[in-house]
Design the sequence.
């Protein structure tokens, strides 16, 4: 990925987070963070990955965000100067949950071997 695309992705993530915090009034997405953004090379589409504290609200948050994507995109256009403003698709990021799952499996393996749990 080029340096320019990395900057664009980072800036889109930052601005989208600002818009969500300021404009989206839904308690289910109160503790949401943008984890990464992947924008296509032609700048037509951005996949915005998010993480949310309450795992029970992931589907609801995704639904709300995708319904509001045009509104968020419109506000994004006011905050960023891009020749082409990408459409936004919000996708839950399960990498944090996966990392915790792997950590728990490692700890279980250490305990079952009776090894030292302090690393």
Sequence:
């Amino acid at each position: 990925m080029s340096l320019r695309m990395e900057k664009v992705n980072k800036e889109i993530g930052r601005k989208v987070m600002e818009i969500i915090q300021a404009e989206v009034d839904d308690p289910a997405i109160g503790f949401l963070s943008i984890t990464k953004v992947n924008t296509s090379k032609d700048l037509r589409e951005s996949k915005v990955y998010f993480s949310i504290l309450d795992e029970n609200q992931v589907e609801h948050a995704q639904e709300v965000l995708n319904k509001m994507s045009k509104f968020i995109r419109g506000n994004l256009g006011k905050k960023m100067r891009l020749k082409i403003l990408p459409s936004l698709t919000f996708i839950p990021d399960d990498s944090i949950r996966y990392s915790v799952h792997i950590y728990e499996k490692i700890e279980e393996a250490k305990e079952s071997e009776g090894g030292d749990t302090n690393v």
In short: The mean pLDDT is 88. The two ends are 35 Å apart (CA to CA). Strands lie at 32-39, 45-52, 87-92. The longest helix spans residues 3-23.
